[in-house]
Amino acid sequence: MIIPVVFRCNASSRVGLGHLMRCREMARLLTERGHVCAIVGPSEDLREPNDAKLFSRWIPLLGDYSCEQDARDFLAVCREMNAVHAVMDDYRVDPAYQASLKAHGIRFLQQFDASKPWDFHADIIVNSNPYERAEDYAAYVKNPNARLLLGPRYAVLRPEFSALDIRPAGRPVQRILVSFGGGDDLGAIRLTLEALMETAGAQNVTAIVVSGNSNPRNKANENLIAELPKGRAEFFMHPKKVAELMNSCDLAIIAGGTMSYEAALCTLPMILVALAPNQVRPCRGWADKAGAKMLGTIDNVTRSMIRETIEPLLADTAQRTEMAVRGQAMVDKSGGLRLIAALLEEDAI
Fold this sequence. Notes:
Elements: E1 4-9, H1 18-32, E2 36-41, H2 51-54, E3 57-60, H3 67-80, E4 85-89, H4 95-103, E5 107-111, E6 124-127, E7 147-150, E8 175-179, H5 188-198, E9 206-211, H6 218-227, E10 233-237, H7 242-247, E11 251-254, H8 259-265, E12 270-274, H9 280-290, E13 293-297, H10 303-315, H11 317-328, H12 335-343
Parallel strand pairs: 1-2, 1-4, 2-3, 4-5, 5-6, 6-7, 8-9, 8-11, 9-10, 11-12, 12-13
Helix pairs in contact: 1-12, 3-4, 5-10, 8-11
Keywords: Hydrolase
GO molecular function, one term: hydrolase activity
Protein name: UDP-2,4-diacetamido-2,4, 6-trideoxy-beta-L-altropyranose hydrolase
């Protein structure tokens, strides 16, 4: 039986593109099984050629919608497609919006922002943050039949990571991944590169800078890298083979978003900088559970903080190995499959 599934996704240069990546991967898994997907929210300029295969409809919602209006428009799309299954990957979907979906018979999976606890009416509540515990949600879950899918086992990774031959933990640091999502890096790339240039022991290390098309600082970052000594940094904007690129690195200085799960899978010890409030708790989770180094939020991290964290880590193989092993043990390649199975009430993976 063909099942239509409608996605609500919030993605932009300001918000970042992690939500859209997750939606694309879940849509890929659904369409491979013969189902039909539509996506509501992202602007047309975020569409990629392969999206035509993933989404039968792409419906932008531009401007600041009220949740009430957003819910009405989203439900209209569900009615047009005869859809009763939805994925809400938009942190603005408030309790009233959720209750409206339930009142109209929509079975939905909700990815949410751990920094803003509120009532949940979803059938499946997802948070892949390493810190999450079921008992923390007891006061907020209003759907008695809701399933809580918590922790990195439910992280959705890009499909190219499933084919990687993961390198062993504890390798010497020759390449450092520097990346802060697909949107605005808020100056974190420049700050990190400047710190690396000042770090003792990093003279023979190459920074592998990965940025999305939507980052308004791309040109400035590219100009900065061009001024650095040869071999100190390489710039990759929206690379097609991001998994291979990440797997070629030995350490990661990144934000607390989706890439942190992919870095963990690739046995990369992580130094984390939160770019938004919703990344603080995941960063702390990686620090607590995997030994990652959390520096703080972008507005209070300094070059000296980055330098003083990297320098001893470059010389400490045992610590890097432990960080990498602990992180990799928390992530596998089946998070997306688990979410799809839960949404469609199939056998658990």
